[in-house]
Amino acid sequence: MVVKSIKEKSSSFFLYFCSKGFKKPASPQQGTKGNAVSSEQKPPGGWKAMPFILGNETFERFATIGLLSNFMVYLMKKFNMDQVSASNVLNIWSGVSNFAPLIGAFISDAYVGRFATIAVASVASFMGMLTITLTAWIPQLQPPQCPAEQQLHGHCISPSKAQLGVLLTGLGLLSIGTGGIRPCSIPFGIDQFDPTTEEGAKGINSFFNWYYTTFTLVILLTLTLVVYIQDSVSWVLGLGIPTLLMAASIVLFLIGTRIYVHVKPQGSIFSSIAQVFVAAYNKRHLKLPAEGQEFGVFYDPPLKEYVLSKLPLTYQFRFLNKAAITTKNDLEDDGSPKKWWLCSIQDVEEVKCLIRIIPIWASGIISFTAMAQQGTFTLSQALKMNRHLGPKFQIPAGSMGVISMLTIGIFLPVYDRIMVPSLRKITKHEGGITLLQRIGIGNFFSILAMVAAGVFEQKRRNSATLHPGAAPISVFWLSPQLILMGFCEAFNILGQIEFFNKQFPEHMRSIANSLIFCSWAGSSYLSSIVVNVVHHVTGGHGHPDWLTNDINAGRLDYFYYILAVMSAFNFLYFLYVAHRYRYKGQARIEPKSEPDVELSSM
């Protein structure tokens, strides 16, 4: 599960960096429309606010990742769940948590602002972690402990409805916290600087550097120290330390209240998207003008001040163009359009950008489903393998995700500094290869990863049958599938982030951020469906199902092959939709003032 948490958070970081690092937002001091500050009109908090914000960020990430990094093992050992049930709990919870940022972003943007959203969400996260820690501390909140042999054959006492209710309450509170913290944390840090000044621009760059530095340290500590404490010392201590750090993050965050810049809610982009569909439906009986005869027919006002790219009128999804047709009663007395009846060409084309991207986005769900297995069945494999380094030290199963992270960390600099320049000479493309090609390569690696997982699981299972009890095969036989999955993530996830970032208008990139999280949510639900179907359909006639609790008796390798076949069909689907995809057109609008500001070519 930690691998998914890390990828989801890193997705948020990279996407926000791309969308904000080159943009010219309004100064917090200026109080411009759409980016107004509080009534106090105080100057940006700048680096005075950073110890509190970065401290909160570091402790919060350490807490949540540290809590969930080994959670599959916790559910199996402490709640006597079989691997299918534990996988379902994690997948369903992950799906809820990844849809939650959509709601959190809407509430923050439209109603309460980022500070209040983060504050309330942090309290919810703390309560959730405290609840889960109590399930490890108080014996009455977990079923009776079960010997490993009985657990292997499914003879353990299952958790009661009350015990399961407490656990799910804790996970629900964590989802609320995730929904508020994830979409707001990085933007709130950027709010503290004035990007129109040289000092503010440098501060933003330094903020990202410090953010990623602390992020990397958190990954190393959670995948090693915290997981080791949970596995080898105490679950209470291993869960209690992240919980206490979460409490510290709240205190640290609130201490800086008087220093922060509090940006007022700007309204949500989701309402303008809905208006296009409603307006197009309301005018469904109108006839569109012939191509080349559009002048004066469509509503095309000057762009809003925060919009940098003017999108030209296109004829794909032409029915939506009806939303921009001007009729007699569409304008108010002051010349503004009536809501739900008239939208600008820009509004319509922005919605088309979203529609065009959905087929590409959908291809990521199955690819992410393959990645999701790192936090579930890969852990089950690791628990059955020889994890010793020397006579005394044993690698925690939850630490195996480090292999994927190291693959990404080593490969990305090589790709950026060596492979891209070489490919650029051949393809004459700025990025060496197109973004859709990069995503496609990631999808192909997901096939290879699942095939490798099936092959080496078959090797592990055969070894286990020759050596009953504990399989003598080394846990590092899992490295090939984890390395391949690292390549899949390096190409696919980062490729999708950059693709969404470039294909969405600048002010719609919060939706791009949400799409990445929704991909993870969809993959979690799809993974849960596939697991349950395989669990119930296979087996019978005296034979255990493929995903039985004793994986030595099951056929986990067949499950991996099913995912490989699904990934192969997904790859073919991606090739089809990528071939039909049409990139957005745009006319860059230079700002009327401050021409020395560098704009992104994205």
UniProtKB/TrEMBL annotation:
It is found in: Membrane. It is a multi-pass membrane protein. One of its GO terms (cellular component) is membrane. Gene3D superfamilies: MFS general substrate transporter like domains. InterPro entries: MFS_trans_sf (IPR036259), POT_fam (IPR000109). One of its GO terms (molecular function) is transmembrane transporter activity. Keywords: Membrane, Transmembrane, Transmembrane helix. It comes from the Eukaryota. Its main location: membrane. The chain crosses the membrane at residues 88-108, 114-138, 210-229, 235-255, 354-373, 393-415, 435-456, 476-494, 515-538, 558-578. This is Major facilitator superfamily (MFS) profile domain-containing protein. It comes from Gossypium darwinii (Darwin's cotton).
